[in-house]
Amino acid sequence: MITKTPPLTLSTLAPDVHGIAEAMTGLTVLDAYIADPSAAARQHGPEWVKLAPRGKFTARDGRVFDVDPELLAARFEKDGVDLPIDIDHATVKKAMFGEAAPAVGWVSKLEARADGLYGKVEWLAAGIEVLAARTHRYISPTLKHDENGKAYWLHSAALVAAPAAAMAAVASSDLSTHEDPKMLKAIAAALGLSEDASEASCLSAVTNLKARVDPAVHQAALDQVKTLSAELEARNKADHQAKVDALLEDALKAKKIVPAQRDQYAALCGSPEGLAQVTALFATMTSTLNASGLDEKQPNDQMATLSAEDREVMKMLGISEEDYRKANGLTVAA
């Protein structure tokens, strides 16, 4: 569930001269090359970047944040997931709308130092290209924090274009949504992770899960289910027909019906419900055919009287008395 809350992320930017922006905005600012100045001259991505200062500092909008580098480094080590560096916080902003947000580098290690949190970066070609062009030279971390401003998780980092003195929304105050912690815990549990697993760990687990499902394997499984369903249906049909045949044969042997009635009763047994009804009917019938005495009767004998059971059978079969008498070899009224 997404709820509207005070922003839980911040982004820090930096001019070339340390301290000027602090005086103007009260925000410690960071240059992407601050940890490795020589990398700029080599037109190469810096191996280490300073991601956040140590301790409390105030964002441009007046909010106070507190960064414990050791805490963030320990969380990173526990998650075991490299963190993306993107352009202009695309990982946070575009991913919310299902848009592509490719990384331009990956933070593979975090290190707590005396002055703040540092990240070891494996730059991709796109990141080196952007840094060389100097279009986005400032590093801006995205941190999750509690209601007291205490940062507890580094989500990602971004290369941004403008220094703090020229950017109105240094703290990424437009990111005003956050994931419900309870929902994140439930998702982590469903993925077989610990309840305190990070969002990045959950996303990684989902990606791995999706990768395991080969479309060919999925289709093969569907085909197998279809085949098994057809086989089960054929087996059920055969079992049903066997029950119908056994019932009618028993009725014929017990002289409850005559051969001419077999097909009519078979039609009534077409469904499991019909079979149950005919079975119940046969249970109430006696061998009335043995007592008819038709073999000794002459054509001029008195017409036999139909019993209540005969008339019940006629009703079920939907036939007239004349047709019933003909089927059973009884005298038909002239």
UniProtKB/TrEMBL annotation:
It comes from the Bacteria. This is Phage I-like protein. It comes from Gellertiella hungarica.
